[in-house]
Design brief:
single chain; about 90 residues; alpha+beta; three-stranded antiparallel β-sheet; 3 strands; about 40% helix
Length: about 90
């Protein structure tokens, strides 16, 4: 799957990234979200209007509650998040 996502990213389509360094600020037009296993992902803001993200945020609210500060935690693991982002990258 990683090879496919790199191939899609290099073909000029939108890309996503799993961030492993400690950069504090997301690129313009992006937001950081975290999976339950602690992986950080920088995703385009345009993805937030997709139904899958609305559902993930709803489940996050039910599971973790509403937080006014701190990271945005989504209720899925890193491989699931990578797969979701890969599919969205193909569709957009």
């Amino acid at each position: 799957m990683a090879k496919k996502s790199r191939k899609v990213a290099s073909s000029g389509r939108r890309s996503f990234s799993s961030i492993t360094n400690d950069r504090e600020i997301a690129s313009r037009g992006h937001i950081f979200v975290y999976s339950v296993d602690g992986k950080r992902f920088m995703i385009p803001l345009t993805y937030l209007r997709e139904s899958i993200f609305r559902e993930l945020f709803r489940k996050s609210k039910n599971e973790f509650g509403l937080q006014s500060d701190g990271p945005i935690m989504l209720p899925c693991d890193a491989p699931t998040m990578e797969y979701i982002l890969y599919l969205l990258c193909l569709c957009n």
